[in-house]
Amino acid sequence: MSAIAKLPTPPYYAVIFSSERTEGDKGYGLMADKMVELASRQTGYLGIESARDEALGITVSYWASLESIKAWKDNAAHQVAQQRGKSEWYQSFALRISKVERDYYFDR
């Protein structure tokens, strides 16, 4: 199974979350897994891709609309995770929202 999300024909939206972590797990891994599972049940969710090395993590989630992104941002459980991220897990982060107008996919 590919780690690359299979997505519908554009347009759709990408939420790009880049982060630098603090030291130690402090429950981060469990919460990250919970958030992926919860996001996947949200209306408008299309898929996710994520990669992390020692210094930088990048997660891109894909959504059908700006309204579905806003609903996910406002989800109560997600808000708890966001607050813990600011207080415990992230040294710094950036979040960017982009409209995908074209995409290409290759699979051998």
TrEMBL record:
GO terms assigned for molecular function: monooxygenase activity
Species of the source: Paenibacillus endophyticus
All residue ranges annotated as the ABM domain in the record: 23-83
Keywords: Monooxygenase, Oxidoreductase
Name of the molecule in the record: Heme-degrading monooxygenase HmoA
Keyword field contains Oxidoreductase: yes
Keyword S-adenosyl-L-methionine: no
A Pfam family matched in the record: ABM
